[in-house]
Amino acid sequence: MSRIIAGICGGTPLASVPGSGTRPTTDRVKEALFSRLEALGMLSRARVLDLYAGSGALGVEAVSRGASTAELVEADAKAVGVCQRNARTVNDAVGRRAVTVHRGKVGSFLDSTIEGRHWDLVFMDPPYPLGEEQLSRVLEALAPHLAGDALVVVERSARSPEPAWPRGLTHYADRKYGETRLWFAEPEVSEADGSVAS
Protein backbone atom coordinates (compact mmCIF):
# COMPACT_ATOMS: atom_id res chain seq x y z
CA MET A 1 0.00 0.00 0.00
CA SER A 2 1.24 3.47 -0.90
CA ARG A 3 1.56 5.99 1.91
CA ILE A 4 2.73 9.50 2.69
CA ILE A 5 6.29 9.02 3.89
CA ALA A 6 6.99 12.07 6.06
CA GLY A 7 5.74 15.40 7.34
CA ILE A 8 2.48 16.33 9.01
CA CYS A 9 0.68 13.41 7.32
CA GLY A 10 3.57 10.95 7.54
CA GLY A 11 2.41 7.33 7.64
CA THR A 12 -1.04 8.13 6.23
CA PRO A 13 -2.19 5.48 3.71
CA LEU A 14 -3.04 6.73 0.23
CA ALA A 15 -5.77 5.50 -2.07
CA SER A 16 -4.31 3.86 -5.19
CA VAL A 17 -5.51 3.95 -8.78
CA PRO A 18 -7.15 0.64 -9.78
CA GLY A 19 -6.05 -1.12 -12.95
CA SER A 20 -2.88 -0.55 -14.98
CA GLY A 21 -3.51 2.81 -16.64
CA THR A 22 -1.05 4.62 -14.37
CA ARG A 23 2.45 3.86 -13.13
CA PRO A 24 2.89 4.86 -9.48
CA THR A 25 6.23 6.21 -8.31
CA THR A 26 7.74 3.59 -5.99
CA ASP A 27 8.29 4.46 -2.34
CA ARG A 28 12.05 4.01 -2.88
CA VAL A 29 12.13 6.59 -5.68
CA LYS A 30 9.76 8.91 -3.82
CA GLU A 31 11.90 8.81 -0.68
CA ALA A 32 15.11 9.53 -2.63
CA LEU A 33 13.42 12.34 -4.56
CA PHE A 34 12.03 14.09 -1.49
CA SER A 35 15.29 13.74 0.43
CA ARG A 36 16.96 15.58 -2.46
CA LEU A 37 14.24 18.25 -2.61
CA GLU A 38 14.49 18.89 1.13
CA ALA A 39 18.29 19.17 0.88
CA LEU A 40 17.80 21.76 -1.90
CA GLY A 41 15.26 23.69 0.21
CA MET A 42 12.59 23.30 -2.48
CA LEU A 43 9.60 22.32 -0.32
CA SER A 44 8.96 24.99 2.30
CA ARG A 45 5.98 27.13 1.18
CA ALA A 46 6.41 25.96 -2.43
CA ARG A 47 3.63 26.25 -5.01
CA VAL A 48 3.58 22.74 -6.50
CA LEU A 49 2.17 21.46 -9.77
CA ASP A 50 1.77 17.68 -10.20
CA LEU A 51 1.16 16.87 -13.89
CA TYR A 52 -0.08 13.40 -14.94
CA ALA A 53 -0.78 13.08 -11.22
CA GLY A 54 -2.11 9.50 -11.09
CA SER A 55 -3.04 9.14 -7.41
CA GLY A 56 -1.55 12.55 -6.57
CA ALA A 57 1.06 10.92 -4.33
CA LEU A 58 3.85 13.38 -5.19
CA GLY A 59 1.73 16.49 -4.74
CA VAL A 60 0.25 15.42 -1.41
CA GLU A 61 3.68 14.31 -0.15
CA ALA A 62 4.99 17.80 -0.93
CA VAL A 63 2.18 19.47 1.07
CA SER A 64 2.72 17.07 3.97
CA ARG A 65 6.38 18.20 4.01
CA GLY A 66 5.64 21.92 4.02
CA ALA A 67 4.64 23.02 0.51
CA SER A 68 2.05 25.80 0.50
CA THR A 69 -0.19 24.38 -2.24
CA ALA A 70 -0.33 21.54 -4.73
CA GLU A 71 -2.39 21.33 -7.89
CA LEU A 72 -2.96 17.85 -9.29
CA VAL A 73 -3.72 17.52 -13.01
CA GLU A 74 -5.04 14.20 -14.30
CA ALA A 75 -7.22 13.16 -17.25
CA ASP A 76 -8.31 9.63 -16.27
CA ALA A 77 -11.66 9.63 -14.45
CA LYS A 78 -10.76 6.85 -11.98
CA ALA A 79 -7.44 8.49 -11.18
CA VAL A 80 -9.17 11.85 -10.64
CA GLY A 81 -11.46 10.23 -8.08
CA VAL A 82 -8.42 8.84 -6.25
CA CYS A 83 -6.69 12.25 -6.39
CA GLN A 84 -9.77 13.84 -4.83
CA ARG A 85 -9.82 11.29 -2.00
CA ASN A 86 -6.12 11.79 -1.27
CA ALA A 87 -6.50 15.56 -1.49
CA ARG A 88 -9.34 15.48 1.07
CA THR A 89 -7.20 13.39 3.42
CA VAL A 90 -4.34 15.90 3.34
CA ASN A 91 -6.57 18.98 3.38
CA ASP A 92 -8.32 17.67 6.51
CA ALA A 93 -4.95 17.01 8.17
CA VAL A 94 -3.50 20.47 7.43
CA GLY A 95 -6.80 22.25 8.12
CA ARG A 96 -7.04 24.12 4.80
CA ARG A 97 -7.59 23.58 1.08
CA ALA A 98 -3.93 23.13 0.20
CA VAL A 99 -4.46 20.48 -2.50
CA THR A 100 -6.74 21.01 -5.51
CA VAL A 101 -7.53 18.62 -8.35
CA HIS A 102 -8.01 19.51 -12.02
CA ARG A 103 -9.54 16.95 -14.38
CA GLY A 104 -8.26 17.34 -17.93
CA LYS A 105 -5.36 16.88 -20.29
CA VAL A 106 -2.07 18.41 -19.23
CA GLY A 107 -1.63 20.34 -22.50
CA SER A 108 -5.09 21.90 -22.23
CA PHE A 109 -4.51 22.84 -18.59
CA LEU A 110 -1.24 24.62 -19.41
CA ASP A 111 -2.71 26.33 -22.47
CA SER A 112 -5.52 27.77 -20.33
CA THR A 113 -3.26 28.84 -17.45
CA ILE A 114 -3.41 32.56 -16.75
CA GLU A 115 -0.36 34.52 -17.88
CA GLY A 116 1.77 35.57 -14.94
CA ARG A 117 0.89 32.47 -12.89
CA HIS A 118 4.01 30.63 -11.66
CA TRP A 119 4.95 27.42 -9.83
CA ASP A 120 8.05 26.71 -7.75
CA LEU A 121 8.15 22.93 -8.09
CA VAL A 122 6.69 20.79 -10.88
CA PHE A 123 6.41 17.01 -11.01
CA MET A 124 5.88 15.32 -14.38
CA ASP A 125 5.34 11.57 -14.42
CA PRO A 126 3.83 11.00 -17.88
CA PRO A 127 2.96 7.51 -19.08
CA TYR A 128 6.00 5.89 -20.68
CA PRO A 129 4.26 5.61 -24.09
CA LEU A 130 4.06 9.42 -24.28
CA GLY A 131 6.32 10.37 -27.19
CA GLU A 132 9.38 12.55 -26.75
CA GLU A 133 8.02 15.20 -29.12
CA GLN A 134 4.78 15.46 -27.14
CA LEU A 135 6.71 15.65 -23.88
CA SER A 136 8.82 18.47 -25.29
CA ARG A 137 5.67 20.40 -26.28
CA VAL A 138 4.33 20.09 -22.73
CA LEU A 139 7.65 21.30 -21.31
CA GLU A 140 7.58 24.25 -23.72
CA ALA A 141 4.07 25.19 -22.55
CA LEU A 142 5.18 24.87 -18.91
CA ALA A 143 8.35 26.97 -19.13
CA PRO A 144 6.67 30.44 -19.04
CA HIS A 145 4.82 29.46 -15.84
CA LEU A 146 7.88 28.75 -13.70
CA ALA A 147 9.20 30.92 -10.89
CA GLY A 148 12.78 32.10 -11.41
CA ASP A 149 14.22 29.54 -8.98
CA ALA A 150 11.81 26.73 -9.87
CA LEU A 151 12.67 23.07 -10.30
CA VAL A 152 11.03 20.63 -12.74
CA VAL A 153 11.26 16.89 -12.08
CA VAL A 154 10.49 14.54 -15.00
CA GLU A 155 10.14 10.82 -14.28
CA ARG A 156 10.79 8.49 -17.22
CA SER A 157 11.90 4.97 -17.97
CA ALA A 158 15.63 4.51 -17.48
CA ARG A 159 15.71 3.46 -21.15
CA SER A 160 14.11 6.69 -22.40
CA PRO A 161 16.35 9.39 -23.88
CA GLU A 162 16.95 12.68 -22.14
CA PRO A 163 13.96 14.98 -22.71
CA ALA A 164 14.40 17.59 -25.43
CA TRP A 165 14.48 20.68 -23.21
CA PRO A 166 12.79 23.65 -24.88
CA ARG A 167 13.97 27.24 -24.74
CA GLY A 168 13.41 28.44 -21.19
CA LEU A 169 14.48 25.18 -19.50
CA THR A 170 17.91 23.70 -18.93
CA HIS A 171 19.06 20.31 -17.65
CA TYR A 172 20.17 20.51 -14.03
CA ALA A 173 20.85 16.89 -13.00
CA ASP A 174 19.53 13.34 -13.33
CA ARG A 175 19.45 10.24 -11.16
CA LYS A 176 18.74 6.58 -12.01
CA TYR A 177 16.87 4.27 -9.63
CA GLY A 178 16.51 0.80 -11.14
CA GLU A 179 14.12 1.09 -14.10
CA THR A 180 13.36 4.74 -13.36
CA ARG A 181 15.31 7.89 -14.18
CA LEU A 182 14.53 11.30 -12.72
CA TRP A 183 15.50 14.32 -14.81
CA PHE A 184 15.82 17.69 -13.07
CA ALA A 185 15.56 20.97 -14.97
CA GLU A 186 15.50 24.64 -14.02
CA PRO A 187 14.61 27.88 -15.78
CA GLU A 188 17.25 29.01 -18.24
CA VAL A 189 18.95 32.25 -17.28
CA SER A 190 19.92 34.75 -19.97
CA GLU A 191 23.69 35.33 -19.92
CA ALA A 192 23.18 38.88 -21.15
CA ASP A 193 21.30 40.28 -18.16
CA GLY A 194 20.84 37.40 -15.71
CA SER A 195 17.08 37.28 -16.27
CA VAL A 196 15.05 34.12 -16.78
CA ALA A 197 14.73 33.30 -20.49
CA SER A 198 11.19 32.92 -21.80
TrEMBL record:
Pfam families: Cons_hypoth95. The keyword Phosphoprotein does not apply. Keywords: Methyltransferase, Transferase. Gene3D superfamilies: Vaccinia Virus protein VP39. Its EC number is 2.1.1.171. It is an enzyme of class 2 (transferase). InterPro entries: DNA_methylase_N6_adenine_CS, RNA_MeTrfase_RsmD, SAM-dependent_MTases_sf. The keyword Cell division does not apply. GO terms for molecular function: 16S rRNA (guanine(966)-N(2))-methyltransferase activity. CDD domains: AdoMet_MTases. PANTHER family: METHYLTRANSFERASE (PTHR43542). This is 16S rRNA (Guanine(966)-N(2))-methyltransferase RsmD. It comes from Sinomonas cellulolyticus.
